[in-house]
From TrEMBL, chains A, B:
InterPro entries the record matches: PPase-energised_H-pump (IPR004131)
Subunit structure: Homodimer.
Molecular function via GO: inorganic diphosphate phosphatase activity
Source organism of this protein record: Clostridium brassicae
Family the entry assigns: Belongs to the H(+)-translocating pyrophosphatase (TC 3.A.10) family. K(+)-stimulated subfamily.
Known function: Sodium pump that utilizes the energy of pyrophosphate hydrolysis as the driving force for Na(+) movement across the membrane.
Pfam families assigned to the protein according to its UniProt record, in alphabetical order: H_PPase (PF03030)
Record keywords, A-Z: Cell membrane, Hydrolase, Ion transport, Magnesium, Membrane, Potassium, Sodium, Sodium transport, Translocase, Transmembrane, Transmembrane helix, Transport
Root EC class: translocase
Entry's EC annotation: 7.2.3.1
Protein name: Putative K(+)-stimulated pyrophosphate-energized sodium pump
Gene designation per UniProt: hppA
Length: 672, 672
């Protein structure tokens, strides 16, 4: 076995992505009204991307120069291509998603099966682009630079940087639009959701694509690439004489790509009344294929089943964390019901109850992650061979992420179905169409919650694996909490996620306020708008979200990149290790807390809308709407931003490790 | 210099406490109505204490047995007395506070100066009891057990256990009563605050004493004792041949006690229009006395000014953290104004904005703590002598806490003034009286916010110092984040504060719901209540708060004590070190976040009530009330509970260190 396998698998994934894409394009895009609406959304999404790229060019050049000065030109090249590959995945995925949405709506006129197939194919394009470009890019640069994994970490940094823009910027975009559309449209003007008279409605639909398709894709692209890089780095010193073992993480990922393709094909073909079942079947078959292959490979390549054990622990824990998320955020379980009940005594109790559920929900996922870390370390014999144990942790991360293609496909399907519903509404299609898209959408909401749990879990494990790689690269045998530098690093690191959450929440607030002003202005100043005689200025709202999203993410972005470097230089490599440890631990917790509080509030509101506790319009419902509004930036902006923060900080430390190892600790040296 | 000094200072503090107490008792308690109301509050407070003691006896016996089995009987004896001394301080402080409140109201009839003097004397009794009993108890057992500091750690555990009951139970008590009184009384029935027709009004006033006097006192008693124990432990190996250096932490604390007494006497005598200035003058003079004495002692005892530097850093940082708290929580600064402005767009934006401010406010205090840790470590020569550096950190903690007597006095003054206002209202005293108590109360609110910041900062530094003591006692030279056990410990530890916050918030919710039901029932079932013809059943409401507070703190209490022992046994001493590191870092952050979000919401509401953004009754005000209600358990229950959690977990680990060092790591040993 050699490096042809990952290259072939990567290309295969892209071929399937293209095939699905052209299949979608061939479908009918519906009547003129539908095409018009879809055109607005497509143009809005593309406008965001184009504007984002302008910022990105400056950013990429600046960081590349920094890398050239501090490290070398090869790493800078890898960085640039890591960024470009992530951009391509996002561009392609979003372009197809904004075509699939209207075609899903059109297909829903004839029935659910076809609508599901188109929506899911759209999601699959994103999923397969992520893994195809991820594994292809990594392998190419691994080969080009003569298996020098240190250089290839630059690719991971490139991926992380784009994830920052896509996930954090996208998160701000989508929530500014959402809050603006809801507060003025639904609450003040009293028009329904997705009403074409609402000036922010297009921005809202664009936001679903920008945040939930491109943002989620870039997030998992980063985890995917990061986990493989970490495993390759840690394997580098262990297996320098055994090429097959050396490239095992790439082989494992290749298997995962094939399994994902098969899973996607199965999920796409499923028919029947229950779309959830179709998605589940595909996911389980994909997972099972990875497990069986790994079982065989573990014995063939390593001569034992230890590797299999480590990988399996990652896969199982990834799935379990997703499932547990459902318990805390679905109205089928007691937690959401409790929040709904608390809404009867007003919005304050809704908020307290939702915060408590989110905080409580951190316990089980953290215990699962802890078990995966311990199990994958010790099963690999870490008790006597620490390096091998740490390699086991990185394999757990690669294992968890091996079916990323499938996960992203299932995940990106949701916003496409959501968009389809919006288009159906705005184009005044028959209510039967909306019923189908609503059903697809509600499945999408569940998969989104699970996907969010998975994204957090994988980010945590990836960050921990990269953390081990960082220690190895800086020649640290110990990151000792009893040294004051590490302790201070830990405290400062634990603080950063709070700061990041605060900044991103504020950003949503600011952007939403601008949006609210604009929507109010249009309602007031455009005559005939409320009567439906005049089209609102959608583009203006799209512009506001775009500009705000990009402007607001500059400061947190700089923070995430510069703080590790500054702390490393001032307090040294070990203190930087403490910083990462602190940031990862508190970042994961805040991510889970915010995602689940937000998800629980959202579903508590929907639960009340089914008629319980007074139903829509009751006081309980009003309180629940407050919870949902607070939850919006929680679950779609600040929470997911944590994933990026912890991975980005870790990979920045990894890339700049040589500089920090050489020059770090300037401040502490003064005392010596 | 020898151990007579701390004993004399401890006794002196208690003599002053008694003198102030009998001075207060001699003052007039006003007319019959005032005596009746004050009697209800006093009886309610005592009822809470008595019920608490019943639980405490079971708890103390159980833990003492555990200590006898696991460690030895001497430590168990110290534990029991640590608990008893803390109980005595709380009992005495609260008894006097519930006498001072009505006398403050009566004195306010004649003028502000006398009212301030009585209220502040009441607070001083609590403050001097805390430091007097703290230093006396520690020194006595230090002498009795032949300078065996390991045994004396039991005293710290006793203090911590009582703090758990007093602070967490008290926090639940006070907020259940507050929310119940506000939601039904103010919002539903439309009667003013502190109206005697409200059945929960007495419980609310009792809550101020239980939570803010006894709870805060026990919290700082724990920090005070813990920091001294930590410094004595770390100094034990450093200065085994030099008794003066060995007992230096006790000498430093003695000086602090004297300085506190002088500061209190000055603050008490101040006259004039600005009560804030009087309190400040006393505080600054007390601090200055400690600084000057330490400057001399450092050179005399240690032959250099390094020790002075370490202590000074603690004192300065403690003061700065308090001051910074004001910036984020006072309406004089931009943050609270922003929350008030955001209230115009509804309660969701109020909540988001307040959460963002709280999270943002973690940055500066953490940086200050980081600076104090680094400075006190390196100034002591930690770069070449780690043990000496760690001793420096513990001295910073002792320094910060040296003027605890003064801090608690200033802090406990607030709820007494608040209570006085309530009594004035309920007794229908002239509005001029209420004006004076309101003024004293508003000063109390500022000092409370500063006191909260100080409590958090001192808890953090104390926990870090105890953490170093723990490592020394388990013979750990390294708590290495690169071992999976430590990493898992870190993750689990960081999760515990989230869990603790969730549980305590839920507890307040549950207890408040019971209170709401009861108040509604009384309004409905007692004829003539609303007309003021009939007295409500205050006692029932007091009972509900009492029962709920004590019941709801059992689970979190068990958690805080058992988790460190279980993790230590399963994963070993190093992993337990990781657990403490994680818990302290995330606990401090959540403490700051919750305290400041809560304080900021509170003052945003009050700011709107001054007439801005539409003033009282406007939509902005309604939104701000939601923020304030969410903030109540934040700032008065869950936030302060973090202080206890991190100290208690650390001291449990310290006391059980021998067992964990001997038998720990059962689970990991399976893999070996």
């Amino acid at each position: 076995m050699n490096l042809y396998l990952p290259i072939i698998c990567g290309i295969l994934a892209l071929i399937f992505a293209f095939a699905f894409s052209s299949g979608i394009t061939k479908e009918s895009a519906g009547n003129d009204r539908m095409k018009e609406i879809a055109g607005y959304i497509h143009d809005g999404a593309m406008a965001f991307l184009m504007r984002e790229y302008k910022y990105l060019i400056i950013f990429i050049v600046a960081v590349a120069v920094l890398i050239i000065i501090a490290i070398d030109i090869k790493t800078a090249i890898c960085f640039i291509f890591g960024a470009i590959f992530s951009i391509c995945a996002g561009y392609f995925g979003m372009k197809v998603a904004t075509k699939a949405n209207v075609r899903t709506a059109e297909a829903a006129r004839t029935g659910q099966d076809k609508a599901l197939k188109i929506a899911f194919s759209g999601g699959a394009v994103m999923g397969l682009s992520v893994v195809g470009l991820g594994i292809l890019g990594l392998t190419i640069f691994y080969v080009v630079f003569g298996n020098d994994i240190n250089v290839v970490t630059g690719f991971g940094l490139g991926a992380s940087s784009i994830a920052l823009f896509a996930r954090v910027g996208g998160g701000i975009y989508t929530k500014a639009a959402d809050v603006g559309a809801d507060l003025v449209g639904k609450v003040e003007a009293g028009i329904p959701e997705d009403d074409p008279r609402n000036p922010a409605v297009i921005a809202d639909n664009v936001g679903d694509n920008v945040g939930d398709v491109a943002g989620m894709g870039a997030d998992l692209f980063e985890s995917y690439v990061g986990s493989i890089i970490s495993a390759l780095t840690l394997g580098y010193t262990l297996f320098s004489n055994d090429k097959t073992k050396l490239i095992f993480p790439l082989i494992l990922s290749s298997i995962g790509v094939l399994a994902s393709i098969i899973g996607i094909l199965i999920a796409r073909r499923s028919k029947g009344d229950n779309p959830q079942k179709a998605l589940n079947t595909g996911t389980y078959i994909g997972g099972a294929l990875v497990i069986i292959s790994t079982f065989i490979l573990s014995s063939n390549i390593f001569g034992n089943y230890r590797v299999f054990g480590a990988i399996l622990s990652g896969l199982i824990v990834g799935t379990l964390i997703g499932k547990v998320t459902e318990i805390y955020t679905s109205a089928d379980y007691k937690y959401v019901k409790k929040i709904a009940r608390q809404s009867e005594t007003g919005s304050a109790t809704t908020i307290i109850s939702g915060l408590a559920v989110g905080m409580y929900s951190t316990m089980i996922p953290i215990i699962f992650i802890a078990i995966a870390v311990l199990f994958s370390f010790y099963i690999m014999g870490g008790a006597s061979d620490v390096a091998m144990g740490l390699y086991g942790i990185s394999l757990a991360a690669v294992g968890m992420l091996s079916t990323t293609g499938l996960t992203v496909a299932v995940d990106a399907y949701g916003p496409i179905a959501d968009n389809a519903g919006g288009i159906a509404e705005m184009s005044e299609l028959p209510s039967s169409v909306r019923e189908i898209t609503d059903k697809l959408d509600s499945v999408g909401n569940t998969t989104a919650a699970i996907g969010k749990g998975f994204a957090i879990g994988s980010a945590a494990l990836t960050a921990l694996a990269l953390f081990a790689s960082y220690a190895q690269k800086t020649n640290l045998n110990s990151i000792n909490l009893l040294t004051p530098g590490t302790l201070v690093g830990l405290l400062l690191g634990a603080m950063l996620p709070f700061l990041f959450a605060s900044m991103t929440m504020e950003s949503v607030g600011k952007a939403a306020n601008e949006m609210i002003e604009e929507v109010r202005r249009q309602f007031k100043e455009i005559p005939g708008l409320m009567e439906g005689k005049e089209t609102p200025d959608y583009k203006k709202c799209v512009d506001i979200s775009t500009a705000a999203a990009l402007k607001e993410m500059i400061l947190p972005g700089i923070l995430a990149i510069l703080v590790p470097i500054i702390i490393g230089i001032l307090l040294g490599a070990e203190a930087l290790g403490g910083l990462i440890g602190g940031a990862v631990s508190s970042g994961v917790l805040i991510a889970i807390f915010m995602a689940n509080s937000g998800g629980a509030w959202d579903n508590a509101k929907k639960y009340i809308e089914t008629g319980v506790h007074g139903g829509k319009g009751s006081n309980a419902h009003k309180a629940a709407v407050v919870g949902d509004t607070v939850g919006d930036p929680f679950k779609d902006t600040s929470g997911p931003a944590m994933n990026i923060l912890i991975k980005l900080m870790t990979i920045v430390s990894l890339v700049f490790a040589p500089v920090i190892a050489a020059y770090g600790g300037v401040l502490l040296n003064l005392f010596k």
